[in-house]
Amino acid sequence: MSFLNNLITGISLGSVYAIIALGYTMVYGIAKMLNFAHGDVIMVGAYVTFFATGSFNLPPVVGVLLAVVVCTVLGVVIEGLAYKPLRQASSLAVLITAIGVSYFLQNAALLLWGADPKVFTPVIPEGSLPISGVNITYVSLVTVLACIIIMLALTWFTSKTKMGKAMRACSEDKAAAQLMGINVNRTISMTFAIGSALAAIAGVLLCSSYRTLMPTTGSLPGIKAFTAAVFGGIGSIPGAMLGGILLGIIETFAKVINTNISDAVVFAVLIIVLLVKPAGLLGKTVREKV
Amino acid sequence: MAVLLDVKNINVYYGAIHAVKDISFHVEEGEIVTLIGANGAGKTTTLQTVSGLLHTRTGSIEFMGKPIQAVPASKLVAQGLAQVPEGRRVFQQMTVEENLEMGAFTQPNSTIAPNLERVYAQFPRLKERRKQVAGTLSGGEQQMLAMGRALMSNPKLLMLDEPSMGLAPILVEQIFDIIKELHKAGTTILLVEQNAQMALSVADRGYVLETGRVTLTGPGRQLLADEAVKKAYLGG
């Protein structure tokens, strides 16, 4: 049964990657930029929940909601202050700014909350549910469920609502979208808001499974989720989900074989996929405009 | 007739390049007005300045009596100004119907259904393909979609940028038939074209642009017969 147990651990870890990857991929799809500070927003979300539930004794649900609100605002502020002024700048300038924002957030957290790791109190009750001989922890169950719900909600949002469709229109052609009366800047802010809210949820879920919380907590999962987004096809929402879950499974099984090489395996897989299919698993091949 | 669009002495720059030099023109309600000229004459720049994608350094643009040169593009649509961009620019990965819905972005939801009906009546081809992804349409169909999409906002002024570009002659005829029909139905049209022959034959008035300036203006028929225009743009 250890195979099934590992598979479930992998899917659960992959669900967290998937939720983070959605933020990367949506922002990339619309703003055509890699928001490397995304991983650090996760860390902020986890700290907010940690202090809300630990220091202020608020109920877990309130702690999570608070994290979502704080991260949403943080995402919109980052976009407005750091990225919006660079709308016409080269993509390299934006990339370097994003890395700068990432370091800024990590160091701000270091200053505010110190370097020593905090032990995160899970917001989900401990224990597990035995399903046909396999014990599935509540955390895994909630993580996977959250991932599925987010996936369905986002699919519905982008295919059925006016704002969601406007988002797709902006990601395809900003000038044409403006000619439709769509406010492109507002749409980009909204995308950052959604991505950052998801990052908050991912942060809480991540720290509920892996208890340690430090200023650099979001950095490696952020990079892995970015890998997942590229793996699945950056810009594609189902791609981010698929890439995230596959990456989680691969990493978990690699850890079973040898803990030291698991990260190397993850990135080796990325390299192989990009060699074979440069657009990623579900990526769209770029059409030449006539 | 009331002046719908009044452009006075606009100057537009791309960085250091002075692309539009002191251009003035106007469009009255119910007219088809065309701006013709060779590649690089400043036609598209002028149109994009009117629609708010580009900005004037000096000069004024009034739409229905109100200055609009400082209004962002996304706000002009709601005021009744719609542009069909050069190269059509339909949303390739969205369906025909989704493209049309985007055209109605600024409109109240209740107007979407009747407007869809109207556009589908005008372009039956689009109705047949409404669930199809726009990227799979032919060039002519994409042009129809781009026009239908602009009409979804109930524009008071429809601006068409090179609607004949890249289309086979038979499709060019079709597109111009549609322009005439729209005009008959009461739509005011500002048409930018390299195909001077077609444009001048449907237009009430025309302006000839050369390297960023208006060099000649007059009724469409008169320009068609003008020796200088014939020589420069009509191949004879």
Describe this structure in words.
The complex is a heterodimer of chains A (290) and B (236). Chain A is built from 11 helices and 4 strands. By secondary structure, chain A is mainly alpha-helical. Chain A has helices at 2-31, 38-54, 60-83, 91-113, 138-160, 162-172, 174-179, 184-209, 219-232, 237-257, 262-276, and strands at 118-119, 128-131, 134-137, 212-213. The model of chain A has no long low-confidence stretch (mean pLDDT 92). Chain A has a single domain, classed as ABC transporter involved in vitamin B12 uptake, BtuC, CATH 1.10.3470. The longest helix of chain B has 16 residues, at 169-184. Helix content of chain B is 36%, strand content 28%. Chain B has one domain (3-233): P-loop containing nucleotide triphosphate hydrolases (Rossmann fold), CATH 3.40.50. Chain B is globular. The termini of chain B are far apart. Chain A binds chain B through residues 162, 165-166, 168-169, 172-173, 175-184, 284, 287, 289-290, and chain B through 51-53, 72-78, 82-83, 85, 87, 89-94, 98, 101-103, 105-106, 109, 135, 149-150, 153, 166.
Question: Largest sheet of chain B, order of strands side by side?
Answer: 6-7-8-3-9-10
Oligomer: heterodimer
- How many separate domains of chain B? 1
Give the amount of beta strand of chain B, in percent. Answer: 25-35%
The rough form of chain B would be described as globular
